[in-house]
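User
Here is a favour to ask of a fellow structure person. I am asking you to supply a protein in sequence and C-alpha coordinate form. Please set it down just below, with no commentary around it:

Assistant
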Amino acid sequence: MKTYSPKDYWAGLAENFDHADTAGLAPVLHPDSPSWLNRRIDDLQFRAVKRAIAVAAIPVGARILDVGCGTGRWVRRYQELGFQATGVDATLAMLRAALKRGTAGTLVAGEAYRLPFPSSEFDAISDITVTQHIPALLQRPALSEMIRVIRPGGCLILMELIRGEGTHIFPRKPQDWIEQAASCGAKLVGWFGQEYLLLDRLFVHVAQGMVGKHRNPGSAGVVSQRPESQYSALVRRMYWGFRRVTVPISAWADPVARRICPAQIATHGVFVFRK
Protein backbone atom coordinates (compact mmCIF):
# COMPACT_ATOMS: atom_id res chain seq x y z
CA MET A 1 0.00 0.00 0.00
CA LYS A 2 1.34 3.43 -0.94
CA THR A 3 2.20 5.68 1.98
CA TYR A 4 -0.11 8.66 2.27
CA SER A 5 1.53 11.96 1.37
CA PRO A 6 -0.60 15.11 1.83
CA LYS A 7 1.31 16.96 -0.89
CA ASP A 8 0.90 14.15 -3.42
CA TYR A 9 -2.74 13.68 -2.47
CA TRP A 10 -3.65 17.33 -3.08
CA ALA A 11 -1.50 17.54 -6.20
CA GLY A 12 -3.49 14.62 -7.62
CA LEU A 13 -6.80 16.30 -6.81
CA ALA A 14 -5.67 19.58 -8.35
CA GLU A 15 -4.60 17.79 -11.53
CA ASN A 16 -7.63 15.53 -11.90
CA PHE A 17 -10.49 17.74 -10.71
CA ASP A 18 -9.43 21.32 -11.48
CA HIS A 19 -11.88 21.51 -14.39
CA ALA A 20 -14.82 19.91 -12.59
CA ASP A 21 -16.37 23.30 -11.77
CA THR A 22 -15.53 26.94 -12.38
CA ALA A 23 -15.38 27.83 -8.67
CA GLY A 24 -12.65 25.28 -7.94
CA LEU A 25 -14.69 23.48 -5.28
CA ALA A 26 -14.20 19.87 -6.40
CA PRO A 27 -10.45 19.65 -5.63
CA VAL A 28 -10.93 21.01 -2.09
CA LEU A 29 -14.28 19.54 -1.06
CA HIS A 30 -15.72 16.26 -2.42
CA PRO A 31 -14.10 15.55 -5.79
CA ASP A 32 -16.24 12.55 -6.75
CA SER A 33 -19.54 14.26 -5.92
CA PRO A 34 -21.92 16.32 -8.08
CA SER A 35 -21.22 20.04 -8.25
CA TRP A 36 -24.51 20.88 -6.55
CA LEU A 37 -23.38 19.08 -3.40
CA ASN A 38 -20.09 20.96 -3.28
CA ARG A 39 -21.91 24.26 -3.74
CA ARG A 40 -24.20 23.41 -0.84
CA ILE A 41 -21.30 22.38 1.45
CA ASP A 42 -19.36 25.49 0.44
CA ASP A 43 -22.32 27.70 1.33
CA LEU A 44 -22.66 26.06 4.75
CA GLN A 45 -18.95 26.49 5.38
CA PHE A 46 -19.02 30.14 4.34
CA ARG A 47 -21.82 30.83 6.82
CA ALA A 48 -19.81 29.11 9.54
CA VAL A 49 -16.66 31.08 8.71
CA LYS A 50 -18.56 34.38 8.85
CA ARG A 51 -19.96 33.34 12.22
CA ALA A 52 -16.45 32.50 13.44
CA ILE A 53 -15.14 35.88 12.22
CA ALA A 54 -17.88 37.55 14.27
CA VAL A 55 -16.98 35.47 17.35
CA ALA A 56 -13.32 36.40 16.89
CA ALA A 57 -14.26 40.09 16.36
CA ILE A 58 -11.71 40.42 13.54
CA PRO A 59 -11.78 44.06 12.33
CA VAL A 60 -12.01 45.10 8.70
CA GLY A 61 -8.55 45.61 7.28
CA ALA A 62 -6.99 42.86 9.40
CA ARG A 63 -4.20 40.74 7.91
CA ILE A 64 -5.50 37.18 7.50
CA LEU A 65 -3.52 34.15 6.41
CA ASP A 66 -5.47 31.21 4.98
CA VAL A 67 -3.44 28.04 5.55
CA GLY A 68 -3.96 25.39 2.89
CA CYS A 69 -5.64 27.92 0.62
CA GLY A 70 -6.16 25.42 -2.21
CA THR A 71 -7.93 27.01 -5.16
CA GLY A 72 -8.19 30.33 -3.31
CA ARG A 73 -11.88 30.49 -2.34
CA TRP A 74 -11.24 31.85 1.18
CA VAL A 75 -8.56 34.31 0.06
CA ARG A 76 -11.03 35.78 -2.44
CA ARG A 77 -13.81 35.94 0.13
CA TYR A 78 -11.66 37.53 2.81
CA GLN A 79 -10.72 40.24 0.34
CA GLU A 80 -14.40 40.78 -0.49
CA LEU A 81 -15.09 41.14 3.25
CA GLY A 82 -12.45 43.87 3.52
CA PHE A 83 -9.47 41.95 4.92
CA GLN A 84 -5.88 41.84 3.70
CA ALA A 85 -5.68 38.18 2.71
CA THR A 86 -2.68 35.95 2.07
CA GLY A 87 -2.86 32.30 1.06
CA VAL A 88 -0.30 29.56 1.61
CA ASP A 89 -0.44 26.05 0.15
CA ALA A 90 2.06 23.23 -0.19
CA THR A 91 0.80 22.28 -3.66
CA LEU A 92 1.90 24.37 -6.62
CA ALA A 93 -0.93 22.99 -8.76
CA MET A 94 -3.45 24.34 -6.23
CA LEU A 95 -1.79 27.76 -6.27
CA ARG A 96 -1.91 27.79 -10.07
CA ALA A 97 -5.62 26.93 -9.87
CA ALA A 98 -6.12 29.82 -7.45
CA LEU A 99 -4.38 32.25 -9.80
CA LYS A 100 -6.43 30.96 -12.72
CA ARG A 101 -9.58 31.87 -10.80
CA GLY A 102 -8.48 35.45 -10.32
CA THR A 103 -7.24 35.21 -6.75
CA ALA A 104 -5.51 38.50 -6.03
CA GLY A 105 -3.23 39.24 -3.11
CA THR A 106 -0.28 37.19 -1.97
CA LEU A 107 -0.09 33.46 -2.62
CA VAL A 108 2.88 31.61 -1.16
CA ALA A 109 4.11 28.02 -1.41
CA GLY A 110 4.71 26.47 1.99
CA GLU A 111 3.73 23.66 4.34
CA ALA A 112 1.53 24.16 7.39
CA TYR A 113 4.08 22.75 9.83
CA ARG A 114 6.86 25.06 8.59
CA LEU A 115 5.25 28.28 7.47
CA PRO A 116 7.51 30.66 5.51
CA PHE A 117 6.57 33.76 7.52
CA PRO A 118 8.12 35.63 10.45
CA SER A 119 6.56 35.42 13.89
CA SER A 120 3.57 37.67 14.70
CA GLU A 121 3.05 38.51 11.02
CA PHE A 122 -0.77 38.21 10.90
CA ASP A 123 -3.79 39.41 12.85
CA ALA A 124 -5.66 36.17 12.19
CA ILE A 125 -5.25 32.72 10.64
CA SER A 126 -7.87 30.47 9.12
CA ASP A 127 -7.47 26.74 8.72
CA ILE A 128 -10.55 25.36 6.99
CA THR A 129 -10.48 21.54 6.90
CA VAL A 130 -6.72 21.42 6.42
CA THR A 131 -5.07 20.03 9.56
CA GLN A 132 -7.50 17.09 9.50
CA HIS A 133 -5.62 15.90 6.41
CA ILE A 134 -2.20 16.12 8.07
CA PRO A 135 -0.99 12.92 9.79
CA ALA A 136 -1.57 13.06 13.53
CA LEU A 137 2.08 13.38 14.51
CA LEU A 138 2.42 16.55 12.43
CA GLN A 139 -0.82 18.20 13.53
CA ARG A 140 0.58 19.79 16.67
CA PRO A 141 3.66 21.19 14.82
CA ALA A 142 1.25 22.66 12.25
CA LEU A 143 -0.91 24.31 14.91
CA SER A 144 2.22 25.57 16.66
CA GLU A 145 3.41 27.20 13.44
CA MET A 146 0.04 28.85 12.86
CA ILE A 147 0.01 30.30 16.34
CA ARG A 148 3.63 31.43 15.98
CA VAL A 149 2.82 33.68 13.02
CA ILE A 150 -0.21 35.28 14.74
CA ARG A 151 0.44 38.49 16.64
CA PRO A 152 -0.30 38.49 20.39
CA GLY A 153 -4.05 39.00 20.76
CA GLY A 154 -4.73 37.68 17.26
CA CYS A 155 -7.06 34.80 16.44
CA LEU A 156 -6.99 31.35 14.87
CA ILE A 157 -10.13 30.00 13.20
CA LEU A 158 -9.99 26.22 12.94
CA MET A 159 -12.66 24.15 11.15
CA GLU A 160 -11.88 20.45 11.34
CA LEU A 161 -13.52 17.03 11.36
CA ILE A 162 -14.50 15.74 14.78
CA ARG A 163 -15.68 12.34 13.52
CA GLY A 164 -15.15 9.97 10.61
CA GLU A 165 -12.36 7.81 9.29
CA GLY A 166 -10.32 7.44 6.14
CA THR A 167 -6.88 6.94 4.65
CA HIS A 168 -6.33 10.66 4.27
CA ILE A 169 -8.24 12.13 7.21
CA PHE A 170 -7.14 12.27 10.83
CA PRO A 171 -10.00 13.77 12.88
CA ARG A 172 -9.91 14.47 16.59
CA LYS A 173 -12.59 14.84 19.21
CA PRO A 174 -13.43 18.49 20.04
CA GLN A 175 -11.59 18.47 23.37
CA ASP A 176 -8.55 17.02 21.65
CA TRP A 177 -8.44 19.84 19.08
CA ILE A 178 -8.81 22.33 21.92
CA GLU A 179 -6.01 20.74 23.96
CA GLN A 180 -3.70 20.59 20.94
CA ALA A 181 -4.09 24.32 20.27
CA ALA A 182 -3.92 25.23 23.95
CA SER A 183 -0.61 23.37 24.28
CA CYS A 184 0.77 25.68 21.57
CA GLY A 185 -0.17 28.87 23.42
CA ALA A 186 -3.73 29.61 22.29
CA LYS A 187 -6.80 30.14 24.46
CA LEU A 188 -10.23 28.98 23.32
CA VAL A 189 -12.70 31.82 22.74
CA GLY A 190 -15.52 29.47 21.74
CA TRP A 191 -16.52 26.67 19.40
CA PHE A 192 -19.62 25.31 17.67
CA GLY A 193 -20.69 22.32 15.59
CA GLN A 194 -20.77 22.58 11.83
CA GLU A 195 -22.58 20.46 9.24
CA TYR A 196 -25.09 18.27 11.06
CA LEU A 197 -27.10 17.23 7.96
CA LEU A 198 -28.86 14.62 10.04
CA LEU A 199 -31.34 13.23 7.50
CA ASP A 200 -28.68 13.04 4.79
CA ARG A 201 -26.19 11.31 7.09
CA LEU A 202 -28.85 8.76 8.02
CA PHE A 203 -29.62 8.06 4.36
CA VAL A 204 -25.91 7.68 3.49
CA HIS A 205 -25.43 5.28 6.39
CA VAL A 206 -28.37 3.14 5.32
CA ALA A 207 -27.40 3.22 1.63
CA GLN A 208 -23.84 2.18 2.34
CA GLY A 209 -25.03 -0.65 4.51
CA MET A 210 -27.30 -1.93 1.73
CA VAL A 211 -25.05 -1.53 -1.31
CA GLY A 212 -21.53 -2.02 0.01
CA LYS A 213 -19.59 0.99 1.04
CA HIS A 214 -16.74 3.23 0.41
CA ARG A 215 -17.29 6.73 1.70
CA ASN A 216 -15.54 10.04 1.68
CA PRO A 217 -15.03 11.72 5.09
CA GLY A 218 -17.76 13.76 6.67
CA SER A 219 -21.24 13.78 5.21
CA ALA A 220 -20.54 13.28 1.49
CA GLY A 221 -20.18 9.52 1.38
CA VAL A 222 -20.26 7.97 -2.06
CA VAL A 223 -21.60 4.50 -2.75
CA SER A 224 -18.87 2.54 -4.46
CA GLN A 225 -19.47 1.41 -8.02
CA ARG A 226 -17.70 -0.14 -10.97
CA PRO A 227 -17.99 2.18 -13.99
CA GLU A 228 -18.44 -0.74 -16.39
CA SER A 229 -21.46 -2.06 -14.52
CA GLN A 230 -24.87 -0.84 -15.71
CA TYR A 231 -26.26 -1.93 -12.36
CA SER A 232 -23.73 0.21 -10.53
CA ALA A 233 -24.49 3.20 -12.76
CA LEU A 234 -28.18 2.82 -11.94
CA VAL A 235 -27.41 2.57 -8.22
CA ARG A 236 -25.32 5.71 -8.42
CA ARG A 237 -28.09 7.65 -10.17
CA MET A 238 -30.61 6.52 -7.60
CA TYR A 239 -28.23 7.33 -4.76
CA TRP A 240 -27.61 10.90 -5.90
CA GLY A 241 -31.26 11.31 -6.81
CA PHE A 242 -32.25 10.60 -3.21
CA ARG A 243 -29.51 12.87 -1.91
CA ARG A 244 -30.78 15.66 -4.16
CA VAL A 245 -33.70 15.63 -1.70
CA THR A 246 -32.03 14.73 1.61
CA VAL A 247 -29.20 17.28 1.38
CA PRO A 248 -31.37 20.42 0.90
CA ILE A 249 -33.81 19.31 3.59
CA SER A 250 -30.94 18.59 5.98
CA ALA A 251 -29.24 21.91 5.23
CA TRP A 252 -32.54 23.75 5.78
CA ALA A 253 -32.93 21.98 9.16
CA ASP A 254 -29.32 22.56 10.29
CA PRO A 255 -30.07 25.77 12.24
CA VAL A 256 -32.66 23.84 14.26
CA ALA A 257 -30.26 20.91 14.74
CA ARG A 258 -27.60 23.32 15.96
CA ARG A 259 -29.94 24.67 18.63
CA ILE A 260 -31.23 21.35 19.94
CA CYS A 261 -28.36 18.90 19.36
CA PRO A 262 -25.00 18.69 21.11
CA ALA A 263 -22.23 20.23 19.02
CA GLN A 264 -20.30 16.96 19.33
CA ILE A 265 -22.64 15.16 16.91
CA ALA A 266 -21.83 17.52 14.03
CA THR A 267 -19.28 16.30 11.50
CA HIS A 268 -17.01 19.31 12.02
CA GLY A 269 -16.12 21.65 14.83
CA VAL A 270 -15.38 25.33 14.30
CA PHE A 271 -12.98 26.59 16.95
CA VAL A 272 -11.92 30.18 17.63
CA PHE A 273 -8.69 30.66 19.58
CA ARG A 274 -6.87 33.78 20.73
CA LYS A 275 -3.11 33.99 21.12
Q: What stands out?
A: The CA atoms of residues 63 and 84 lie 5 Å apart. The first helix runs from residue 6 to 17.
